[in-house]
Design brief:
Layout (H helix, E strand, L loop, with lengths): L15 E2 L11 E6 L4 E2 L6 E8 L5 E4 L8 E7 L2 E8 L6 E4 L4 E7 H4 L7 E10 L5 E3 L3 E5 L7 H12 L4 H14 L6 H14 L3 H12 L10 H14 L2 H10 L5 H18 L1
Parallel strand pairs: 3-12
Antiparallel strand pairs: 1-12, 2-4, 4-9, 5-8, 6-7, 6-10, 10-11, 10-12
Length: 278
């Protein structure tokens, strides 16, 4: 999963942030969600920063959200109705030591877990973090308002959902994705469609076509640097699957976010490259 450096890249203002922060029974650990801008256009990054803090005077051992299965759950609501929860799951398990007043930070783009958030209205997000077998803490509430989809995007939205719904069929995504890109070159749904299309091309072993598509997209002038992380990740996997591990590693290193997953992939792919040379 791509984790991007926290800079909210969206249009401005109007927000509500709940003040009730719940602590563990021992009041050792605090969990907070942090964001900057809350009025968001459809399909722009919806980014928040998860901050886990040791508020006690002693060193605390906690499960690492990037290392322990099921340790972090994001809950998202729409007009007080729960849309779903995202449970962070990883292969590795382990604990980390948090010194007094030490914080660990993990950035999330909510679109990564909930790509279907396009309906206009008020949303909110909370998080639950597991400390040990019997204790967990809840975050504050981050609310944001998703603006209505422009009238000229209604047909594009419907066609985008058609692409989204057949992700299990690479052939179908390639057909509908190419059709979408040609029909709606200026649509706000174009970028996510490009990534779905690139993934389908990769899964169909059409690596050169996927690489060409992603490189052309990277050259778009209106991409913020942080937004390119997903494209860099897609390119890295295309090159890796193609057998060009060295170039795959180069694209992994371009990813701005410094995450466990990224660093673990670089290490594993570098080891594979060494074995190839020996």
């Amino acid at each position: 999963m791509s984790k991007i450096k926290i800079i909210f890249l969206v249009a401005a203002l109007n927000f509500f942030c709940g003040q009730n922060i719940l602590f563990s029974q021992q009041e050792r650990i605090k969990l907070a969600l942090v964001a900057e801008k809350y009025n968001i256009n459809p399909l722009q990054p919806i980014k928040l920063l998860i901050k886990i803090s040791n508020v006690s005077k002693d060193t605390q051992m906690v499960f690492s959200p990037t290392m322990n299965s099921g340790s972090l759950i994001l809950n998202i609501m729409y007009d007080n109705v729960k849309l779903g929860a995202f449970d962070e799951k990883f292969i590795h398990t382990g604990k980390i030591a948090l010194l007094p007043e030490q914080k660990i930070r993990y950035p999330y783009d909510i679109r990564e877990q909930f790509p279907y958030l396009t309906k206009s209205g008020k949303y909110s997000v909370t998080a639950v973090y597991k400390i040990d077998e019997n204790t967990s803490v809840n975050s504050n509430t981050i609310s944001f308002y998703l603006e209505a989809i422009p009238e000229n995007e209604v047909n594009a939205q419907e066609d985008f959902f058609n692409v989204l719904q057949i992700q299990g069929s690479s052939r179908g995504v390639i057909y509908l994705g190419n059709k979408f890109v040609k029909q709606y070159p200026e649509s706000i749904f174009r970028r996510p469609t490009i990534r779905l299309l690139a993934t389908a091309l990769r899964d169909s072993k059409q690596y050169d076509e996927g690489i060409k598509l992603l490189v052309e997209e990277l050259n778009e002038l209106n991409y913020y640097e942080g937004e390119k992380d997903g494209l860099y990740s897609d390119l890295a996997w295309c090159y890796y699957k193609k057998g060009n591990i060295k170039t795959g590693i180069e694209y992994l290193k371009k990813i701005e976010a410094n995450t466990y997953i990224k660093n673990d992939l670089i290490l594993r792919w570098t080891n594979e490259l060494r074995k190839e040379k020996n």
